[in-house]
Design goal:
The structure is a single chain. The chain has a four-stranded antiparallel β-sheet with strand order 1-2-3-4, with no helix packed on it. The protein has helices spanning about 5-70, 85, 95-105; strands at about 110, 115-120, 125-130, 135-140. The protein folds into two domains: about 1-75; about 85-140, Beta-lactamase Inhibitory Protein, Chain:B, domain 1, CATH 3.30.1450. The radius of gyration is 32 Å and the shape is elongated. The protein is α+β, with helices and mostly antiparallel strands.
């Protein structure tokens, strides 16, 4: 056989192998992207549902507040840190939301280091400390 013919056949085989490898690599990449796109689409759908639920909740709360304002009823503030009985209801492990409902919004927040501190009547007033999981770690009550 002619050496040129044999070299051409080898070159063609190498070319076919190269094309096959490129095809396999590309098809794997496309399949991976399709799976990733499905996961992203699913996550987007889930987040859209959460947003719709939160928007509905906002509308409900605004309706309640608007109704209270129109009827002349005062809109109840969350918690009262000045009431000692509220401080006596605190427990280790309570969430930040539970503390805010009980004592109201803090005047100052210091979120540095391993603990987060909420202060009322700052400086020198009562405070609540939270651990890294945002659960009550400790507190000091207001002085009488």
């Amino acid at each position: 056989m002619n050496k040129t013919f044999i070299n051409n056949v080898k070159d063609m085989k190498l070319a076919h192998i190269f094309v096959l490898l490129v095809f396999l690599c590309f098809s794997q990449k496309v399949l991976g992207q399709q799976n990733n796109n499905k996961e992203l689409d699913s996550r987007i759908t889930e987040l859209e549902q959460v947003v719709a639920s939160l928007q509905q909740r906002i509308i409900e709360l605004e309706t309640i507040v608007q109704g209270q304002q129109e009827s002349g009823q005062p809109v109840a503030a969350k918690g009262n840190w000045q009431e000692l009985r509220n401080w006596r209801q605190l427990q280790r492990g309570m969430t930040m939301q539970q503390v805010e409902e009980l004592l109201g919004e803090p005047e100052k927040v210091n979120a540095g280091g391993t603990l987060t501190f909420w202060y009322w009547d700052y400086p020198g007033g009562p405070q609540v400390s939270f651990d890294r999981s945002n659960k009550v770690y400790g507190w000091s009550e207001p002085s009488r």
